[in-house]
């Protein structure tokens, strides 16, 4: 965990870039620093690896004041990804990824293994790419390398300063998705700077909104969207986005909870009975750790009407899912785009909470929109 | 036409002597430039790392460069006497400016984002210099080396006036004996040497540029 206590930064020219910052970045979470240009996001981030030294207050990593740690050692233990990618053009992809392990004097075998593992992790075939130069890769591929270079020496903290903002919109979305996926595996403490609210909503566990060197609001994306602290926050989020998140019910409101959840080792007849009782056509298969294992539709049940089989034998994989707090509208769009009629609802911390089905959503929306309106002029 | 055949037959008859002069010539240039590299690159690094020193170092090298070559060599002769060492020292002084300046500019030209990436990942200033800045400024350094080589090959032709050897010996002999053929027999190889050095080092520079782009 990282804690900033009463941190201030006054630059050499006397400009006060940070005024009394008190924040916590939780272990294993993606914390997004967001705010208008010049509000102090980069300054805040660079305090953490001492590229910038604060002038007042304390920065603590796992309780240790970082001003007592040698900056070179500190930086080698923290991953760093910059907006301009910053791959070394005279080094191969392998040499770039291996940069920090080399500084740490890992042996060549260990480095080789790590590079291969990392390239595979972001879908770059090691044999094809490891000896190429950065200039021979697309922008999106280069920044994938930028990200794994930061991960190479297995730091527990990663700093990312607008890492995807220089990419084209398609690559940007892909890398955001990949980061969210990757984070499930690697569970790092990630500090991510952006000025793009959609990006923040998509990837953040926690959003820290800044303005003029101060923290204006801090919370989960849903918390901030549903309760913006003041006019500035509302404006920053944008009327349109706010409208959407405020007025539209979210997926939780129409979610089937326990009734739609079965465990993988449940016998089929029992699952069928549960389905009938609750008038469902789809159920979600969730294990003891609340991880989604698959789904079960009424058709699969009919086709496999075998009393000896278990749920796990007939279930189908789940391709799409939605996060808690997703507006109904977005879930419906997703459903029609991919022609599915049920989606598991996932909470970033708690795992799978339930299932929304198209039928229930349409019923629910009909109820909302057919509510008697006040007669008026 | 007649002159050309005469020149060619002169060069053919004296090829071993001319070759020896060419090698002497090259040797002086190589020594001079190697010394300039050994001194100039560190000075360039100091300029880049410490902006305070840059104006002093660069203008000193500039002043040396401005002194006419014959004058500079003559002054050196007063202190070092006649001979090989004096010539090499003169060539060294002449090569300094392009090498210092290009080292300095090359280091300054390195993309600041790469420096930030290197520093942010925990490179020490020395590692940053040797792993990032110097490799990336090699094309500039090579350009300085090329300019220095071409200048030194030219300046080295006046070596005989201060007791040196090289192709200048043939030229001076030609001047003294009013022999046009001897002058050309010395001047043509010297010119070819300069062109060749320019070409080869230019190719090397291009290759380095590709490796660092
Ligand atoms: N080295 C510096 N000297 C003086 N002022 C600076 C320096 N670096 C940044 N600033 C100022 O501090 C403020 C915050 O900068 P920064 O943290 O880079 O903002 P952000 O990343 O949010 O766009 C800006 O107003 C910027 O002009
Ligand atoms: Mg910034």
UniProtKB/TrEMBL annotation, chain A:
Quaternary structure and partners: The complex is probably composed of two ATP-binding proteins, two transmembrane proteins and a solute-binding protein.
Task: Give an example GO molecular function.
Answer: ATP binding
Q: Does the keyword Cell membrane apply?
A: yes
One Pfam family, please name it. CBS
Q: Membrane topology for this entry?
A: Peripheral membrane protein
**Organism the protein comes from:** Ammoniphilus resinae
- SUPFAM superfamilies xref list: CBS-domain pair, P-loop containing nucleoside triphosphate hydrolases
Q: Which domain of life is it from?
A: Bacteria
Q: What is this protein called?
A: Quaternary amine transport ATP-binding protein
Keyword set, alphabetical order: ATP-binding, CBS domain, Cell inner membrane, Cell membrane, Membrane, Nucleotide-binding, Repeat, Transport
TrEMBL record, chain B:
Localization (cell): Cell membrane; Membrane
| Transmembrane domains' residue ranges | 25-46, 53-71, 77-97, 140-163, 183-204
SUPFAM superfamilies (UniProt xref):
MetI-like (SSF161098)
Topology relative to the lipid bilayer, per the entry, is: Multi-pass membrane protein
Kindly give the InterPro entries that the UniProt entry links to this protein.
ABC_transp_perm/SBD (IPR051204), MetI-like (IPR000515), MetI-like_sf (IPR035906)
Domain (ABC transmembrane type-1) spans 22-205
Q: Which UniProt keywords apply?
A: Membrane, Transmembrane, Transmembrane helix, Transport
Can you tell which superkingdom this protein's organism belongs to? Answer: Bacteria
What the record says about family reads:
Belongs to the binding-protein-dependent transport system permease family.
Q: Which PANTHER family does its entry note?
A: GLYCINE BETAINE/L-PROLINE TRANSPORT SYSTEM PERMEASE PROTEIN PROW, OSMOPROTECTANT IMPORT PERMEASE PROTEIN OSMW
Q: By what name is this protein known?
A: Osmoprotectant transport system permease protein
Supply the source organism for this entry: Ammoniphilus resinae
